[in-house]
Amino acid sequence: MFEKSTWIRLPRNVVVGHGVIDQVVDVVDELHLQGRPLFVTSPTPREVAADPIAAQFEAAGIDPVIVTVETASFDAVERIIETAEAEEVTYLVGIGGGKAIDIAKMASHHLEMGFCSVPTAASHDGIVSNRGSVPDGDTRHSVAAKPPLAVVADTSVLAQAPWELTTAGCADIISNYTAVMDWRLAKRLKDVEYSEYAAALSEMTAEILVGNADLVRPGIEESAWIVSKALMSSGVAMSIADSSRPASGAEHLFSHQLDRLEPDAALHGHQVGVGSIMTAYLHGGEDGIWRDIHDALDSIDAPTTAAELGIDDETVLEALTTCHEIRDRYTVLGDGMNERAAREVATVTGVIE
Ligand SMILES: NC(=O)c1ccc[n+]([C@@H]2O[C@H](COP(=O)([O-])OP(=O)(O)OC[C@H]3O[C@@H](n4cnc5c(N)ncnc54)[C@H](O)[C@@H]3O)[C@@H](O)[C@H]2O)c1
Ligand SMILES: O=P(O)(O)OC[C@@H](O)CO
Ligand SMILES: [Zn+2]
Fold this sequence. Notes:
Elements: E1 13-17, H1 24-30, E2 37-41, H2 43-59, E3 65-68, H3 74-87, E4 91-96, H4 98-111, E5 114-119, E6 131-136, E7 139-144, E8 150-154, H5 155-160, H6 163-174, H7 176-190, H8 196-211, H9 221-241, H10 250-261, H11 268-284, H12 290-299, H13 306-309, H14 313-322, H15 339-348
Parallel strand pairs: 1-8, 2-3, 2-4, 4-5, 5-8
Antiparallel strand pairs: 6-7
Helix pairs in contact: 3-4, 6-9, 6-11, 7-8, 7-11, 8-9, 10-11, 10-14, 11-12, 14-15
């Protein structure tokens, strides 16, 4: 008897393009979100976007609460929940990079309130996903949440953000290749829950981005358009799977471990990109796709070495040999690499010298 069932939650409105930041009040109105919003942002995105959006709301007679956050943590989520309750807000808007959006997403999920996402950087694929990503001691949680009701991605804002944020977003997408390889391996070896649609969408997203890599150049607004579409498509893949599996495999475990060993050394997307070069080698060896991943990253100015990440070789090796412990997610790393094997893969792929 067939007894399977699922809920796939997706955003209702995706508003993307030049100048759409001026439409946040209209977007909220169209969703019938009433009352007082709480904006979750961080210092630069506040200047770039949250304050101008607040001015729009004030002109419409609505007085938003604004909270700036610096890190993604359960404490930060708790602080937002407390503020939301104290200020009697009725919905949340995440305005900024991946951390601000993740915190707003998780707090709104807990509060059972509506949430909108306003990315100020095309740096990560959490813009529309139904997941939050939070470090917690020795582990890293992929927390179930609801996707935003609406996304407002202004390509002029995204194009003016520092270029490395966009290249990080590209690398987060390119890493989908190895995330899907890991997912298929886990399906074969451990019979994990698997969605061919989500896997195919994730891979196709990476294909399209790599196919358009020559259009992804600094200062060109079309780049922001191409990359933000890819980030949203990848987020939809996670929502279809109801898991970050289509976009997060061993390369993400490696990055999460780097975050523990060297906090804030490099951007999330850049770390997963370098991780992806090495885990592609582990999957396919010399004849696999690791060089294609390396060259795709190189072509969009994303780091391909530890030195370019600003992380020393020994830390890369420590992350590689320990990151399988970060969470219970089967990948090509199996029950862990030993130091000699880690040095071999990192050296042969040129990640370390
Ligand atoms: N939930 C998901 O599905 C998902 C997916 C991918 C990544 N993530 C998470 O997102 C985080 C990575 O996102 P990130 O790389 O955006 O990190 P981040 O949020 O720390 O942003 C990086 C920096 O860029 C700044 N910034 C943002 N917009 C800017 C602008 N327009 N101008 C100048 N500076 C700007 C931010 O303030 C921050 O200092 C990680 O915590 C990662 O785990 C979550
Ligand atoms: O579940 P995690 O590993 O945080 O992954 C989410 C996201 O970074 C995928 O690009
Ligand atoms: Zn990621």
